[in-house]
Automatic annotation (TrEMBL):
UniProt keyword annotation of Isomerase present: yes
Position of the signal peptide: none
Alphabetical list of PANTHER family matching this protein: TRNA PSEUDOURIDINE SYNTHASE PUS10
Protein name: tRNA pseudouridine synthase Pus10
Tree of life domain: Archaea
Family to which this protein belongs: Belongs to the pseudouridine synthase Pus10 family.
Role description: Responsible for synthesis of pseudouridine from uracil-54 and uracil-55 in the psi GC loop of transfer RNAs.
EC number(s) given by UniProt: 5.4.99.25
InterPro entries on file: PsdUridine_synth_cat_dom_sf (IPR020103), Pus10 (IPR005912), Pus10-like (IPR039894), Pus10-like_C (IPR048741), Pus10_THUMP_arc (IPR055174), THUMP_dom (IPR004114)
Gene3D superfamilies: 3.30.70.2510, 3.30.70.3190
Organism from which the protein derives: Candidatus Ethanoperedens thermophilum
Length: 432
């Protein structure tokens, strides 16, 4: 062993009693095939041998006496005495490994999981002691106390449970709270992909808080805290929360339809983030799908449910797909059908839209360009026309008809020179 390492170790011992784990951890990045306690015990043994060599070769005890002056413990470790005192750095934390293992296993017994990660929340005193130790020793090879504790507890948990420790997005993170002397679980979300069809009007995609009370409950909302009694999110989530014994959900949809629109065809893609799920992969999603559809009472229907990872949320949010709408349009006056077809054909191509007045309270006032792929007149009866419109994602189709006071151009109303308004809207297809 290099003499500088001996000097570093002797300076550490001069600070007070230190356990094998804390001694070895100072040199954790040297001889990395050893555990810290084995490395620490070896360093102490070499120090003891060096002291004996000095006595035998020169009769000098100067180094030993200098080291002993500040610590009774140094005489024990370099002489014949054993390690008896409390480690000033960790307080003999590593003597309690088995206790923490039992607590972790007990906490994990309440949760379904395939992967886990151990994390430690340090006390202020431990952090301060470690900082002093690193500063006094001048080490460049150390690892933190919590890193060793996480690893040593994790190794035993793996062996006893057969589950794997995983650094990247484990099912559950076990937090050892040293200050509170307890274990806490942070359960990572699981994610379910699917598609939904909305079969009735007047239901928003997600829960809308009452604008008067902000969700707290008031006379205006019947003390529900909601602007609408139910939503797609709530109709889907209630059965999911119960099935997974979860704390809640977050609904991530690939865009959204208007409250008064139907969502038909193959349905709108979504990812449901399930938070705090104590049950996980044991849930049969095909059976859950049937349960959700029965509970939703033909208002909402889900399909294609499958487990996915968290990256699917970003994919859903960034999805840009063409959509096909069925629009029922009320015209201010009856006009010839041929003129209606001619004017509607002018809407094919690029549409310039400024954020609609109905959306400006919650969206930035920007100008966007979107394309209309096709527009076909399906039926026409007096002053009511039905159109099938296929367009780029993000186009406001109501404003494509009304013009929104010139904020959308071209528009059907502008082309006809009369007032036109969408009175019924259905999403009939979202391109997969």
């Amino acid at each position: 062993m290099d003499n500088s390492i001996l000097q570093m170790a002797s300076s550490i011992l001069s600070e007070g009693s230190i356990c094998d784990h804390c001694m070895g951890r100072i040199f954790a990045n040297l001889s990395t095939d050893l555990s810290n306690d084995v490395r620490g015990a070896a360093i102490k043994l070499v120090l003891s041998m060096e002291a004996d060599r000095m006595r035998q070769e020169s009769g000098s005890t100067e180094w030993l006496e200098k080291l002993s002056a500040s610590s009774k413990y140094a005489r024990k470790v370099l002489g014949k005495g054993g390690y008896e005192d409390t480690c000033w750095v960790c307080g003999n934390l590593f003597n309690n490994i088995e206790l923490w293992v039992e607590r972790v296993i007990d906490a994990l017994s309440a949760v379904e999981y395939n992967s886990f990660l151990i994390s430690t929340k340090m006390t202020g005193l431990l952090s301060e002691n470690e900082e002093i130790l690193w500063s006094e020793s001048g080490t460049r090879f150390a690892e933190p106390i919590k890193t060793e504790l996480n690893r040593e507890v994790g190794k035993i948990i793996e062996k006893r449970t057969g589950k794997k420790a995983q650094l990247r997005r484990p099912d559950v993170v076990v937090v050892i709270e040293l200050e509170n002397d307890k274990v806490r679980l942070d359960i990572n979300s699981l994610f379910i992909y699917g598609r939904y069809r909305k079969l009735v009007r007047g239901i928003p995609q997600t829960r809308w808080a009452c604008r008067i009370c902000g969700g707290k409950g008031c006379e205006e909302c019947g003390f529900t805290g909601k602007l609408y009694p139910e939503s797609v999110e709530e109709l889907v989530s209630e059965r999911v929360i119960k099935a997974f014994n979860a704390t809640g959900t977050v609904f991530h949809g690939a865009g959204r339809e208007d409250v008064d629109a139907l969502m038909l065809g193959n349905g709108r893609p979504f990812v449901l983030e399930v938070r705090g799920a104590k049950k996980r992969s044991s849930i049969d999603l095909s059976a859950l799908q049937q349960e959700i559809n029965a509970f939703a009472s033909y208002k909402v229907e889900v399909s294609d449910l499958e487990y996915v990872d968290h990256s699917k949320v970003k994919q859903i949010k960034e999805m840009r797909t063409d959509k096909t709408y069925k629009l029922t349009v009320m015209l201010e006056e009856n006009i010839p059908e041929e003129r209606l077809k001619l004017c509607s054909n002018k809407l094919r191509g690029v549409i310039t839209q400024q954020t609609p007045t109905r959306a400006i309270h919650h969206r930035a006032d920007l100008i966007r360009k979107r394309s209309v792929r096709s527009i076909e007149l399906e039926s026409f009866d007096e002053n009511v026309a039905v159109f099938i419109v296929t367009c780029e994602s993000g186009l406001y189709v109501k404003e494509l008809i009304s013009g929104d006071g010139g904020r959308t151009t071209p528009s059907l109303g502008e082309a006809l020179g009369i007032y036109a308004k969408v009175v019924g809207i259905d999403v009939i297809n979202i391109k997969s």
